[in-house]
Task: structure prediction
Amino acid sequence: MPLTVDGVEIERISHSAFRIRGGGVTVYIDPFHVAGMPRDGDVVICTHDHFDHCSPDDVKKVAAPSAIIVASRNCAGKVGRLGFEYKLLSPGESVEVKGVRIEAVPAYNVGKRFHPRGYGGIGVLVEIGGITVYHAGDTDYIPEMESLRGRVDVALLPVSGVYVMDPLEAAKAAQAIAPRVAVPMHYGDIVGNRGDAERFARLLEGKVRVEII
Result:
C-alpha cells in the first residue's frame, strides 16, 4: 500500500523506483521494472546513469508526453535521446519544474568503487504538495546527510548493502536526518531482500518511524 503524508501519496514500485503524487503533480524517481504503470509522470527524476536508476525504456513507460526529465549530469547521454525536455543537475544545484522544486545533494560511496564521489551521482530533495521527500540515490552514510536534519519529511534510504548502505548504516543515516518517516529501498531486485528492510525497521524502533512500502 502507498504511504500518504499530508495528502502526498508515495508508492514504491520496485528497487529504488517511486511514484509520488501531490499538489496535482506526479513525479517518478528512478523508474525501473515499471510494467503496468500509467504514463502519467509530469516529472521523471534519474539519480545516476546506472541501468537500474536511469533506464530509458522505463522512463518512456511512465513519462507523460509533456514530461520534464530531471537527472544527474552523467545521465545526459541517455536522457538526451528520449525526446523530452530535460534538466541536468550536479550536487548543490536545484531546479523548479511543474511546481516541484528539486535540489540535488551528494550521493557517493565511502570505501567502495561503485559510486565514487567524482562520479556525479546525486540524491534529491523533492518539494511537492507541501512536504519534502529525500531520495538518497545510491550512497553510503556520508557526512553531508547531517545537513539535511530538519529539512526532510520522508527519507527514502537504500538498505541492501554491497553497492549502498546496509541496514545499520541506513539506520544511522535516518537518525542523523531525523525525518518524520523513513522508507527503506534498493532491495528486492539485483541485491538485497525484504529482510534488509525489516532489519532497518527494527534498528529504528522507538527512534524514527519506519514504513516498509
Summary: The chain has a mean pLDDT of 96. The CA atoms of residues 160 and 191 lie 6 Å apart. The first helix runs from residue 56 to 62.
